[in-house]
Amino acid sequence: MPEMLSYPFIIRALVVGTLVSLCSALLGVNLVLKRYSMIGDGLSHVAFSAMAVATVMHWAPLWVAIPVVIAASYILLRLSSDSRVSGDSAIALLSTGALAVGIFIISMKSGINTDINNYMFGSVLAVNKSDVSLSVILSLAVLALYVLFYNKIFAVTFDEPFAKATGIRVDFYNMLIAVLTAVTIVLGMRMIGALLISSLIIFPAMSSMRLFKCFRSVVICSAAISVFCFLTGLAASYEYSAPTGASVVIVNIAVFALFCLIDFIKNKDVLKKNNG
Question: What would the CATH number be for the domain defined by 4-196?
Answer without folding.
Answer: 1.10.3470.10
